[in-house]
Amino acid sequence: MLFSPSSCRRLIVKVGSALLVGGDGTVRRAWLEVLAAEIAQRARQGQQVAVVSSGAIALGARRLGLPKGGRASLEDAQAAAATGQIALSHVWAEVLGAQGLTAAQMLVTLGDLEERRRYLNAAATLDRLLSLGVVPVLNENDSVATEEIRCGDNDRLAARVAQAAGAQGVVLLSDVDGLYDRNPSLSGANHIPRVERIDGAIEAMADRGSASGMGSGGMVSKIAAARIANAAGAHLAIASGRIERPLSAHARHTLFVAEKAATARKAWLAGGLTARGSIHVDAGAAAALAGGASLLAAGAVRLDGAFARGDLVTIEGPQGTIARGLAEYDAADARNLLGRRSDEHAAILGYAPRSALVHRNHLALL
């Protein structure tokens, strides 16, 4: 059983397009009814469940007769999403209602989770719905979004929803049963049952393809989702939905083990997807950050982007991205301070400087 009610008060379940929609473009209703029954059983045991559901574009494409599953162009994808979302919401409401559960629809865009005030509003709505025993069914608002119709949107959305809801577990139900050390279609591929830490070796195992050709993500997006969920203190499992009772069966899957939960603000920073720029630092500054220090200008060697004060930026060390944080300066002033000591800043800027390029209170290590 994946994240039993006794071990996980709140659970986020992501359902991929290939599980919801058959090859003929219609809903796989019998499978969905079984999943709804599993959710209802968990609700009776005291677990609160939210669903992140793909499938709107696939359903809408069939109804509109669009080629390539509705993904031939952005305009087609948006039209398919707008049409398919009604059908998707209706079927979720029906199958959950048949189990005595009330469904609620939440459509979000990346901005709803990246802008702090909007994120807190979404988190408050989720918390209230779950506390009322409602099953929120979430999807990205692809009918108006542009950036969101891209690889990995709902995998990472599920992780961000877990973060916002304070969930302890995320299950990504897919057409694969977990992570392999190479593409599972290749001879000799080995299944990875448990990941304690996501590092370069784990990321190198990812395959970018979607096996069904229907979804928008692959293993790369799932590992990115695991990183976000784990940083927020939530375990994440990648499991096959091609089996009977996928939430209850003792079947093969990959578990990404959560780290100790960060503060809510730092978890939000760590999960951010739309950094406005980057600050590159030397090895000494990278070591200081790992020890809990703020990012000082003396250790910064280069910056990219046109960010403003308060924007999310990544911090790049000699070996890659090491942190995310909120910039204390806009890019122009930060560039003038690169490599300079703190006692030089006032003369360079012509005003009283701030203590750091990124303060430790607004920084999350990755």
Would you mind describing this structure in some detail?
The chain has 366 residues and is an alpha/beta fold. Helix content is 36%, strand content 20%. It has 13 helices and 15 strands. It has helices at 17-20, 29-44, 56-64, 74-97, 110-114, 116-131, 153-165, 200-204, 219-231, 264-270, 283-290, 331-337, 345-349, and strands at residues 10-15, 48-53, 103-108, 135-140, 169-174, 179-180, 191-192, 194-195, 235-240, 253-256, 277-281, 300-305, 312-317, 320-326, 363-365. Strands 3-4-2-1-5-9-10-8 form an eight-stranded mixed β-sheet, sandwiched between helices. Helix 7 (153-165) packs parallel to helix 9. It is elongated. The chain starts with 9 loop residues before the first strand and ends with a strand. Mean pLDDT is 88; it is low at 148-152 and 209-216.
